Amino acid sequence: MKLEILKFTFVASLAGLLFCNCGRNSSSAPPPLSEEEIPAAFSTEFKNSDKETQDAANRYVTDVKNHDLPAAFDDIQQLLHTPSLTEEQRVVVARSLRTTSQKLHDAADNGDEKAKQAIASFSR
C-alpha cells in the first residue's frame, strides 16, 4: 500500500510538471538523466539561483555522487516543490526525479534496507 502511494506521488508530480508544458507540442515525459549527467545539468541550470535553492541543488548532487539514494530522493522532492524554479530547472528536476526514484526502487528490490525504509517513510 505504501509503495503504491509513493508511486502515485511520483506520477502525480510528473503529471504536474508536464501540465506546465501544456502549450508545447511535447507528447511524452522528458527522459530521465543518467547519474553521470546530473551534476553538469544542475551546475548549468542552478548557477543563477538564490543561495537557498543552490544549496538544495548542491545537496542533491552530493547525495547522488555519494550514492545516498534515500537522501537524494528527499532532496529532489524538496526541490520539486520550490516555487521559484524556472521551467528549465523544473525539467531538470523532473528528469532527475525519475532517475533517483528508479534507482531507489531498484536498490530496495535488491534488498537494500535503507532504500526500503526510505520508501516506507516517504509513503507515510
Please name the defining characteristics of this protein.
0% strand; 124 residues; mainly alpha; globular; 6 helices
Concise description?
70% of the residues lie in helices and 0% in strands. It has 6 helices and no strands.
What is the terminal-to-terminal distance? 10 Å
Q: What structural class results from the helix and strand content? A: mainly alpha
Q: Which whole number gives the mean pLDDT? A: 85
Q: Could you tell me the strand content as a percent range? A: under 5%
In DSSP terms, counting alpha (H) and pi (I) runs of 4 or more, how many helices? 6
Summarize the biggest pleated sheet: none
- Count of distinct strands: 0
SSE order: HHHHHH
Using the alpha-carbon principal axes, give the shape: globular
Which regions have little confidence, pLDDT < 50, spanning 5+ residues? Answer: none
The helix fraction, in percent, is over 70%
Radius of gyration: 14 Å
Can you characterise this structure?
- By secondary structure, the chain is an all-alpha fold.
- It has helices at residues 2-19, 38-46, 51-65, 69-80, 87-109, 113-122.
- α2 (38-46) packs antiparallel against α3 (51-65), α2 runs antiparallel to α5 (87-109) and α4 (69-80) packs parallel to α6 (113-122).
- The radius of gyration is 14 Å and the shape is globular.
- The model has no long low-confidence stretch (mean pLDDT 85).
